[in-house]
Amino acid sequence: MALERSDVEKIAHLARLQIREDEVPGYTQTLSDILALVDQLQATDTTDVEPMAHPLDAVQRLRADVVSETNQREQLQSVAPAVENGLFLVPRVIE
Amino acid sequence: MEWETVIGLEIHVQLATKTKIFSGSSTAFGAEPNTQASAVDLALPGTLPVFNENALRMAVMFGLAIDAEIGKRSVFERKNYFYPDLPKGYQTTQLAEPVVGRGHVDIELADGRTQRVRIHHAHLEEDAGKSLHEDFHGMTGIDLNRAGTPLIEIVTEPDMRTAEQAVAFARKLHSLVTSLGICDGNMAEGSLRFDVNVSVRPKGTETLGTRTETKNLNSFRFMEEAIELEVERQIEVIEGGGEIRQETRLYNGDTKVARAMRSKEEANDYRYFPCPDLLPIVIDDAYIEAVRASLPILPAQWKATFIEQYGLSDYDASVLSSNNVQAAYFDQVARRCGDGKLAANWVMGELARLLNQHDTDIKASPVSAEQLGGLLERIKDDTISGNIAKKVFEAMWLDGGTADEIIEAKGLKQVTDSGAIEGIVDQVIASSDKQVEQYKAAEPDKRGKMLGFFMGQVMKASGGKANPGAVTGILKQKLDALCD
Question: Is residue B140 domain-shared with residue B266, that is, in the same domain?
């Protein structure tokens, strides 16, 4: 399956990646190559194979419902570009 | 043309765990912004999620309560989208293998019929933080206290046909999750949020029309209004020759106006994939059976018991069983006084009235079930009348104490001694010449109605303490004797 230029632009937008105009052909090619590899894998007969959710052959360990975290707001916000009244400030997201 | 409405719901239920689904941060409501947001909740590099057992247990409780298949293996996936109140850039949720499979909830309709609403599945996921769009110098404020709060999202089949049915289902679900103790049910704080999928089709046809989704309704009333408005809009569009666009809509309960979200706001392609940070969750039969054994009595079970054991009407039984605390309270009152109907009248009447008046919950009732049961027992054995009981109840509410203590202290014991009552009756008759003449002049079959006046006078003269049954008998006997 070959990707179009517009597919690459859409994927970049969904991932919030800014790519330069002259990089688009390269990405279109390499991503198409990856999909070609997937096509090759698709040819394998997997009728009786259970889909794998995780490469480790183990199950999730559970945690008891006990509060273990304390308020670290000051420290955690010390690396934030903008804070006010305890809130993180980000560029406005609605009009 | 006649139209049929088709409604399906998606419900987000905040689980009443102490901590978040993947971190040990507190989930308590109302804390200062970002004081309950740890490095995991903030998605700082190098942090890893650890799954909360209690969230799993609560989801399984819900599954068992709706008679659903429980996923013995369930898998967390990543739902990718960008929004600043979702720090990881994805929501950890379930898709292909949810913890709760197909189930059902039965609802009672106004006409007494029961209707089954099928549940497609319910899955575990995390809540996002909150965006505050007030003006922070042109920026948006982010509070991540809510980020990572455990949710179950419940998805119904499109089995509802009217706003009324959808609201009946929503109420039933509210009652179920609060009775299970897995959600505090506080809709104003967003503990339970409803998304409504609505479409219309010509009556008698099978194909579903194009649906719209109205998101985040947080009251039963808004839900009903939003559905009615949307049905009206869709019919108008179609009858005007237009087509319904599949879109997400927002309803403003204050202005009663709905609008479509801009298509950009919903242009998402979530690119789900299994979360590599979390292993599959595997539970066995022993776990499921242990959870089943811990289930509280559920509304449907309470209701059946109330009808069977106490002979309550379907309506009374529904009201009393709608939440667990009230059901258990009523049950204790009924056992104590040995009269289910009397207990039902008091719990839904006087008790509800005072709770309402003081804006308090039955959980915090100053009068215990034991106290109220003891009071009703004294009505049953004719120690006091129903009217006096109301006074005792109010005294109990204010100052505590048992019914017997209050009756004794205030001298409210009912007068059943016929000698004493005769004395009062004679007095009343002697001072009511005019009414006595009217009584004598009346047709014998009309006289019964005229007793009311004399009853009132006797009760007043006795300070409400005379036994009404005894008074009626004596009055009738004495007045009728005058007529001969």
Answer: yes
Helix (H) or strand (E) holding B237: helix B220-239
Say whether B26 and A67 touch across the interface (CB within 8 A).
yes
Taking the CA atoms of A81, A82, A86 and A89 in sequence, report the sign of the dihedral they define.
negative
Same domain, B158 and B263: yes
A65 in contact with chain B, both atoms CB, cutoff 8 A: yes
**B288, B310, B345: which is the final residue of a domain?**
B288
Name which residue leads in pLDDT, B287 or B449. Answer: B287
Confidence at residue A94, expressed as pLDDT on a 0 to 100 scale: 66
| Domain of B222, in residue numbers | 3-288
From the candidate CATH numbers 3.40.50, 1.10.3470, 1.10.20, 2.60.120, the one assigned to the domain spanning A5-41: 1.10.20
DSSP characters over B344-403 = HHHIIIIIHHHHHHTT--GGG-SS-HHHHHHHHHHHHTTSS-HHHHHHHHHHHHHH---H
Give B-chain residues touching A64 at CB under 8 angstroms. 53-54
All residues of chain B having their beta carbon less than 8 Å from the beta carbon of residue A12 are none
Q: Is residue B256 located within the same domain as residue B342?
A: no
Whether residue B274 lies within 8 A of chain A, CB to CB, comes out as yes
Q: What total of structural domains would you count in chain B?
A: 3
pLDDT digits (tens, 9 = 90+) for B11-60: 999 999 999 999 999 999 999 999 999 999 999 999 999 999 999 999 99
Average the pLDDT over A74-86 and give the result. 95
The rounded distance, in Å, linking the Cα atoms of B275 and B72 is 18
Work out the end-to-end distance of chain B between its first and last CA atoms, rounded to an integer number of angstroms.
Answer: 73
> Cα separation of B463 and B334, whole Å?
29
For residues B189 and B141, state if they share a domain: yes
Angle between helices B220-239 and B163-180 (to 10 degrees): 150
Same domain, B281 and B250: yes
Q: How close A26 gets to chain B, by Cα (Å)?
A: 23
Whether residues B194 and B112 share a domain: the answer is yes
Q: Is A81 on the interface with B (CB under 8 A)?
A: no
Tell me which chain A residues have a C-beta less than 8 angstroms from the C-beta of B36: 69, 71
Q: Do A53 and B38 touch (CB under 8 A)?
A: no
Q: Is residue A67's pLDDT more than 90?
A: yes
- Distance from chain centroid for Cα B278: 35
Q: Which of B410, B433, B455 is where one domain is finished? A: B410
